[in-house]
Amino acid sequence: MTSRISVKVVPGASADEIVGWIGDVLKVRVSAPPERGRANAAVCALLAKALGVTDSQVTVVAGGASPRKIVEIPMTAPAARALLAADAD
Question: In this predicted model, what pLDDT tens digit does every residue of 19-51 receive, in sequence order?
Answer without folding.
Answer: 999 999 999 999 999 889 999 999 999 999 999
